[in-house]
Amino acid sequence: MKQNQTLMALFPLFLILTIAAEVEGTKLFVFGDSYVDTGNNLNASSYKLPYGMTYPGTPSGRYANGRVLTDYIASYLKIETPTAYTLKNSSNLHNGINFAYGGTGLFKTLFDGPNLTVQIDSFEQLIKQNVYSKSDVESSIFLVNDGGNDYVAFAVKDRNLFGIEKFMKSLVEELSVNIKRIHSLGAEKIFVSLLPPAGCVPKISVVSLYHKCLDPLNKVSRNHNTMLLQVVEDLNKELGKPVVRTLDIYNSFQSAIETMQKNHKENSTLMNPLEPCCAPLKAGFACGNVDEKGNKRYTLCEKPELSFFWDNLHPSQNGWNSVFTQLELSLSQIIGGGGGGGGGGNLTIMELYYFSILILVRC
Length: 363
Fold this sequence. Notes:
Helices cover 40% and strands 8% of the residues.
């Protein structure tokens, strides 16, 4: 009896050590766009000041003043942030690799760069070169964050607003194809980000009074997410196990923004979370721009550490930290659990009209 009690007392410790052993040594492979890019787009504004001013203290290719989602997930896994694919060498591959490239998507976007398919091509090539073994891939975490730039490109190029739902279906189907391909290469733990609330980014919210989220555009994100959640559910049923998980970026953004908005109302000296910390002086300028004399074409907020958005499209380090705090529980899915979601519904004509506002975006 006493022996059984001792074993029961030691069980929680055994469970903790088992979890720690599973996470320890895990590699992280990242695919997608600027929300998770840590330095692949060498020609981007993210390699100019004031990007990186908080961390690492100089521009590092991150689209923020400091850490982004990739950094926080790597920290959670107790590993160093995986190196950007562009910057890889034989000595810095032990934590995985980040293939994400700012401005890209699943299809052709407004920017040249490797889309998700090409990023997976690069990963597959490393496997063929025996840079990573079968066991490396099976024990690793895969993060996919993509799709936002595709909607921007659709709004700017196509402008057929009544075709948005058909486009949405094709986009999610393409994402499903790429997820299946990652799994076919041996991945057993794939995290796919839901889209954030599109109507809340400063580039969009600035058209409303007092920087408020435009819900009709948020509904585009919600509909996309609902469709993606169904695809993930069907895919896991097909595979017979929960290989693919979703990270609820949408509700994490919403929750963090609502909390900061409440604080702003109670204390007007705090920033409105929908205002960018690094703001262009006028239309056509962007964070990081300078003129031929070196004069800044942007302004900086006094306390970047209190902002939610760094520039017109990307969260600040504080913003990502707030979002990750909401996501941390979801990451327990590494060792079991299920996914989450958000509601959708067909878009009305008025909502399609609001979607046209995305034409203003040049990310």
